[in-house]
Automatic annotation (TrEMBL):
Lineage of the organism: Bacteria, Bacillati, Actinomycetota, Actinomycetes, Pseudonocardiales
CDD domains membership: NAT_SF (cd04301)
Domain N-acetyltransferase: 6-176
InterPro entries, sorted: Acyl_CoA_acyltransferase (IPR016181), Bact_Acetyltransf (IPR050832), GNAT_dom (IPR000182)
Keyword field: Acyltransferase, Transferase
Protein known as: Sortase-like acyltransferase
Gene Ontology molecular function: any one: acyltransferase activity, transferring groups other than amino-acyl groups
Length: 178
């Protein structure tokens, strides 16, 4: 049997349910040793799906979202925008998020999705990009470092809703070459 076709495209409103599910399931898998179990267990797929419906209804101008599909099924997503950092120079984009269905980890889909997300930033005129990653997320940090990102030295403590404090570090990379 031939492998299922892989494609990357802009997300549509119809993708909100898959994106919301993947968002929660990937958090639960990736952050199992980094965040409290009760916090992760309390994440609501339905609430995340509703949030993604709102995001995708706002349109690409808000923050473009791309999805990777395998055999027509959404298996991951990435969201990009102009940098939200106060100290960002002109021409700086941001990889806000990149998540895959945990069942799809290690198959190269993340690399495809990442390359497409950076292409969207390049096409939008960005010359460099930043991203924030949980300081203790060694798997994600290795992924980004292999993809040409470097820790820049900036750090912040953030909180999502009523969740725990999250210590994040900033990574940066040039976007001049694919």
């Amino acid at each position: 049997m031939a492998p299922a076709a892989v494609a990357v495209r802009f997300a549509s409103l119809a993708d909100a349910e898959a994106i919301g599910r993947i968002h929660v399931e990937s958090w639960r898998a990736a952050y199992a040793r980094l965040l409290p179990a009760d916090f992760l267990a309390g994440l609501s797929i339905a609430q995340r799906q509703a949030a993604w419906r709102r995001q995708l209804t706002a349109g690409e101008s808000a923050a473009p979202v791309v999805v990777v599909t395998e055999g027509g099924t959404v298996t991951g997503f990435a969201c990009v925008s102009a940098s939200r950092d106060e100290d960002a120079s002109a021409g700086t984009g941001e990889l806000q998020s990149l998540y895959l269905d945990p069942a799809m980890w290690g198959r190269g889909l993340g690399r495809r999705l990442h390359a497409s997300a950076l292409a969207v930033l390049r096409e939008g005129g960005c010359l460099r990009a930043t991203l924030w990653v949980l300081e203790g997320n060694a798997r994600a940090r290795r992924f980004y470092e292999r993809a040409g990102w470097a820790e820049e030295g900036a750090a912040k403590v953030d909180r999502i809703a009523d969740g725990p404090l999250l210590r994040e570090v900033r990574y940066v990379r040039a976007l001049t070459a694919p």
